[in-house]
Amino acid sequence: MTKKKTTIKDIANVLNISAAAVSKALHDDSRISEKTKKAVKQVAKNLNYQPNHLASALRSGKSNLVGVIVPRTNSNFFSSVLQNIEEVLNKEGYNIIITQSNESYKKECDNIDTLLYTQVDGIIASMANETVELDYYEKVKSKGIPLILFDRGENDLNVDYIGINDYESSHLVVNHLVDNGCKRIAHIGGYKRTRIFNNRIRGYIDALKKHNLPLDTELLTESGLTIEDGREKMYQLLNLKKRPDAVYVAGDYAALGALQVLNEENIKIPDEIALVGFGNEPFTDMVTPRITSVNQHSEEIGKQAALTFLKYNKEKVVKQSLNKIILSAELIIRDSSNKKALLT
Amino acid sequence: MTKKKTTIKDIANVLNISAAAVSKALHDDSRISEKTKKAVKQVAKNLNYQPNHLASALRSGKSNLVGVIVPRTNSNFFSSVLQNIEEVLNKEGYNIIITQSNESYKKECDNIDTLLYTQVDGIIASMANETVELDYYEKVKSKGIPLILFDRGENDLNVDYIGINDYESSHLVVNHLVDNGCKRIAHIGGYKRTRIFNNRIRGYIDALKKHNLPLDTELLTESGLTIEDGREKMYQLLNLKKRPDAVYVAGDYAALGALQVLNEENIKIPDEIALVGFGNEPFTDMVTPRITSVNQHSEEIGKQAALTFLKYNKEKVVKQSLNKIILSAELIIRDSSNKKALLT
DNA sequence: TTAATTTGCTTAATCGTTTAAGCAAAAAAT
DNA sequence: ATTTTTTGCTTAAACGATTAAGCAAATTAA
Predict the structure, then answer these.
(1) Is the CB of A118 less than 8 angstroms away from the CB of B53?
(2) Does strand C come within 7 Å of the CB of B60?
(3) CA of A102: which chain B residue's CA is closest?
(4) E-assigned strands of chain A?
(5) B215 CA to chain A: closest CA distance, Å?
(6) Measured between beta carbons, which residues in chain B are less than 8 angstroms from residue A231?
(7) Core-most of A25, A41, A43, B10, by most CB within 10 Å?
(8) CATH numeric code, A166-296+331-343
(9) Cα–Cα dist A170/A250, whole Å
(10) CATH 3.40.50.300: does it fit domain B62-164+298-327?
(11) pLDDT for B131-180, tens place per residue?
(12) What is the model's pTM?
């Protein structure tokens, strides 16, 4: 069973024409007769011919492959972005290669190397939490390959970016909480070095100011936003002399950890403490009480990222500049913060 | 900024040696002097040389790429399998390309074409629910590329398979429920045409028999196991004249749907109805009450799948046969079924 | 009828790397 | 001192496709 793969030459031999003619026939070149085209395609089918991507990509300099780097696939947000990127790019004849960084800078660099090595035509990425050095991304740029960032981006790279308005989102959340009578609003934030989390923190601070609420530094913390982080920070907040009456968490997983602690401590949600998450992960709608969260429009982000790449796909010399597409987020109000609903 | 990529030839020119010598130096060929090797590597670094994978793969016939097909990445099970496959393969110099079928047969076929086209050295896959025809998988086999299936497999393909003992798992579940005093145990199963779901159903039936419990066909249903399916089937069960006192659901998402209905209808879990899911998705430990579920050992499945591929990676002619690695599953007992804990 | 154009192919070079074969110089063995 | 072996390279042919250039035959134009 030493199945030799069929090549263009095999087809040429069968029909007694040149390999070049076969190649052209398969690409519907106008200089090949309809008769020959039909014959070639028939033989190709008979011999179960599958073009060798490596050869054509090597020759033409285009792999029709786009690399995507995400911190993890195991999240509704990223998985949904991936699906939408794929959908848009498939239609244009591109295929995507998905790699995960697991939030590790080292892994992210490896991923970039892998993708460059695979000769992808472009890279769409969301940076790992850890990433602060941009040398590897500069490498991508210096190869002349379009680089598109989403969600976790970086202005300094001067490339296209698609994301939501994190600063504005925090305002949405705080407005909503104030609207529900909350006066001591805590924020369990992500690490400030990551731009999106920094923006959420800035938005939180400015929104408090807007409502003439004092900023209590005890109520503002940074973490990796895992479930465990959420639990830990929630315990810290409960141990304060003056507990908050609302907690706005910059990530749903951490919000879940906070929820667990509140439930375990028999604290009434939202009456005693209201809770808001971020990301609108499906489980926010599954737990008790359901968690209010911010929808990040993953579908649109995926689509826009893919379309942005396609903008470059024909250009020979890629000349990118900081070009941001900022979508406005949407607050999904659920039981964990909706005191008003309880009043009626 | 028309950055021409550095090739092996550029390095050769700088040092006034042949391209072949450079290639060999980079691969630490024993017939190249240490002095030359050092010089080559230095120049390679200076010129920021990145090997062209397309060229080397084309020439050597090995791409060092392994394709993985999963129904979706947005599930803890698959995401964890992916991570472990990647970890094992990366160590051996392989990279993985992840594709999603979204449970669609059509998409799965496209994925296979993409992977073959990319000239992967092997394919590791878990089949879509929809998949019944095996022609596309036969195509992979006929190309002489190793094919490894996990979780959702198919005996008829005669290839390696890694999974858990689904039949035995159902016994674990039923034993546990009987042990907790349940006598009318329902099963919300997956579609029988998918082997794993069929095995869970067979295990359920045989386990009832073992415990001398009658099999009531009203209590046994098939579905796609989405959250919505779980809700629907749970309503059906609640509308029966004789309600079950336990429900064993073949998937965690459907179990969650069932849980929502039970909670909404104010039915006491596990007292009135006990609930058991399958898959040990993280949310089973997040909801109220926490759902008893079956741990499928995703880490081990991923590792074994990768190792199985590596077994073939040196062989010229791949000769596969039905070779199953069956791991035994583990029942994670939580509140939703643990009546005994309540008694003490 | 002859020139110009179009059609339908072929030839050969090329993409960047690997690798079999070969060959001179150096080192080791006799 | 001569033969054998080893070392360190070079040359050239591949891998399978694409593509620029070219050329004869068929068609159209003048």
Answers:
(1) yes
(2) yes
(3) B83
(4) 65-70, 95-100, 122-125, 147-150, 160-164, 185-189, 220-222, 246-249, 274-276, 293-295, 323-327, 330-332
(5) 32
(6) none
(7) A25
(8) 3.40.50.2300
(9) 9
(10) no
(11) 888 999 998 888 889 999 999 887 788 999 999 999 999 999 999 999 99
(12) 0.84
